[in-house]
User: Which sequence fits this backbone?
């Protein structure tokens, strides 16, 4: 069965988020919690992995630190954890989850230009792995496997 198709004016999707950050010397610690509910989501088939967006309820926890080593370099680390409740036709509720760890370094060449490198690893349980890059559902593994991604870039802010 497919889920309820969204229409203008629908009040089915309910989202709540709260977050905070605190600076301690050269470190900034931050975190957030978000919950999304779709009470009208129809149950899904009993077999196969599903996208986490098919859940009736999803909790997302986000925790990270941004540490300045010098005036030109920063270290970044974050963990993002999703827990989803997925309603199945005959099997009842299934709990799915994904966890993504990120480690990065950012070096400022000038006030507007920086180079960065970020390593990300995402793993899942009972859901399709969403994809580390841009939640690329159509390109992500559908077998519940983990993904590792390294991103290196040069950024110029205008």
Assistant:
């Amino acid at each position: 069965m497919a889920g309820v198709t969204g229409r203008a004016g629908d009040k089915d999707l309910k989202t709540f988020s709260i977050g905070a950050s605190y600076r301690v010397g050269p470190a900034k610690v931050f975190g957030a919690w978000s919950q999304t509910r779709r009470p009208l989501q129809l149950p899904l088939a009993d077999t196969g992995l599903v996208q986490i967006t098919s859940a009736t309820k999803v909790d997302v926890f986000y925790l990270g630190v941004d540490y300045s080593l010098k005036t030109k370099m920063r270290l970044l680390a974050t963990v993002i954890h999703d827990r989803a409740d997925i309603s199945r036709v005959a099997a009842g509720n299934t709990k799915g989850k994904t966890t993504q760890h990120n480690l990065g370094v950012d070096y400022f060449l000038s006030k507007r230009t920086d180079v960065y490198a970020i390593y990300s690893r995402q793993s899942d349980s009972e859901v399709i792995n969403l994809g580390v890059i841009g939640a690329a559902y159509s390109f992500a593994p559908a077998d519940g496997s983990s993904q590792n991604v390294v991103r290196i870039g040069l950024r110029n802010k205008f």
Observations:
- Strands lie at 14-24, 27-37, 57-70, 73-88, 92-108, 113-125, 147-156.
- Residues 46 and 113 are 50 Å apart (CA to CA).
- The domain at 14-156 is CATH 2.40.160.10 (Porin).
